[in-house]
Amino acid sequence: MRLNLEFKGGLELLFGSVKCHEVDLDSNEITVEKLLVWIRENLLKERQEMFLKGKSVRPGVLVLINDYDWELMGHLEAPIKDKDSVVFISTLHGG
Amino acid sequence: MVRQCEHCGERRQALRRPKTGHKVCRECFFQLLEDEVHETITQNQLFKKGERVAIAASGGKDSTVLAHILSELNTRHDYGLDLFLLSIDEGISGYRDDSLETVKRNEVQYGIPLKVLSYKELYGWTMDEIVKEIGRKNNCTFCGVFRRQALDRGAALMKADKMATGHNADDMAETILLNLLRGDIARLSRCTAIMTGEEGALPRCKPFKYTYEKEIVMYAYFKKLDYFSTECIYSPNAYRGYARDFIKDLEAIRPRAIVDIIKSGEDFRISSTARMPVQGVCSRCGYISSQKLCKACVLLDGLNRGLPRLGISRTRGIKSTKGVADIDEKSTVAEAGGNGFSKKLSLEF
């Protein structure tokens, strides 16, 4: 499954200062929860606690699947399929 | 499952609003948010027709969205305001210089003129130089105190009648909590006011007082508004960070907690026996102050005399100007070995 991941709001610094990542996963369909595990094991370069907290993202990080709020789709249980775009935006910085 | 917007019933739901729990489409979200800000402005009479308003702009998410929405509402509802952007350059390399580029772009995008004022020209010190002098602790104390004054000076220079800042609901809740944790009764009693400073100093207001940070970010994302978003390199040690983490955890469990904390803060009543500082003016620069010398003067003195802890460490007794009492009020810091300080403070407040 091919996905477009985007990290914004300063999160890109945890991913080698690269905002957009095109990734290839082995499964056909996964949940956000499983995607986070995958990101932690394969993409996250440093300072895990800035992005993740427990099984979920750190509070203050917004998640959008194909530009829709993940809160509408079940949060961690939200399904992700081939060619989906997942955007993570951090709100934790100055305004 | 795809569901229709709970507001218009037509378009697909795009996000869940934290304050209300409503699931709405993008277009309704824009309209609802803009209408709510408009209502906050009118219900609290934040502006008068013809006023010259400085929008404190850092290039960050809140001030960028504020500039966008305020200029939009100014036109749509005919506020008749003369808007301009005011930015402060604290001299933090790799942070502020980048965000200033964003404000310069905002100037063009929104057609609002921009004025930039720097710590260097105002105080003779950049934040980088200050941190080198005092180390990595209490940096935000210096920066916050200096910036507040810098904004007032900038606004006065530009003949503004009022200033608008992008402080949002999350910021307000954090501040209330912070003041509670520190036992700062004076600030606790003032910090929820949506407009402050009418007694002499330039009034400043917070149109986003009830606007959730999540919504500001979503608005900017969907509208593709250009903003700068990196944590200040000196901020990780700030105490506010703890309050922020706590608020974010609370929001995850019960999103209304943020507006509810603000409501609690607004309805606090200070006991009549609590000792409160009396507002006066700084004897040296004339800025608003509850002590003989304002905090900025105390901090600057410390810097220029090589006493970085001045104004930071707690002193015994009520008078926190202990330690600067030996400075002749009429002497200038330039004479004491400063760098251009006295010249810049010829502005009167």
TrEMBL record, chain B:
Biological pathway: tRNA modification; 5-methoxycarbonylmethyl-2-thiouridine-tRNA biosynthesis
Q: Which UniProt keywords apply?
A: ATP-binding, Cytoplasm, Nucleotide-binding, RNA-binding, Transferase, tRNA processing, tRNA-binding
RNA-binding among keywords = yes
Where are the membrane-spanning stretches?
none
Instruction: Provide the E.C. number(s) assigned to this enzyme.
Output: 2.7.7.-
Biological process (GO) annotations held by this record are: protein urmylation; tRNA wobble position uridine thiolation
Pfam families in the cross-refs = ATP_bind_3, zn-ribbon_14
Q: Where in the cell is it found?
A: Cytoplasm
Which superkingdom is the protein from?
Eukaryota
Residues involved in ATP binding: 56-58, 62, 88, 166, 171
Listed under GO cellular component are:
cytosolic tRNA wobble base thiouridylase complex
* tRNA(Ile)-lysidine/2-thiocytidine synthase N-terminal domain sequence ranges: 53-247
Q: What GO molecular function annotations does the UniProt record carry, in alphabetical order? A: ATP binding; nucleotidyltransferase activity; tRNA binding
Q: Which residues form the Cytoplasmic tRNA 2-thiolation protein 1 C-terminal domain?
A: 281-310
* Summary of the function given for this chain in its UniProt record: Plays a central role in 2-thiolation of mcm(5)S(2)U at tRNA wobble positions of tRNA(Lys), tRNA(Glu) and tRNA(Gln). Directly binds tRNAs and probably acts by catalyzing adenylation of tRNAs, an intermediate required for 2-thiolation. It is unclear whether it acts as a sulfurtransferase that transfers sulfur from thiocarboxylated URM1 onto the uridine of tRNAs at wobble position.
Family per record: Belongs to the TtcA family. CTU1/NCS6/ATPBD3 subfamily.
Name of the protein: Cytoplasmic tRNA 2-thiolation protein 1
Q: Organism, per UniProt? A: Selaginella moellendorffii (Spikemoss)
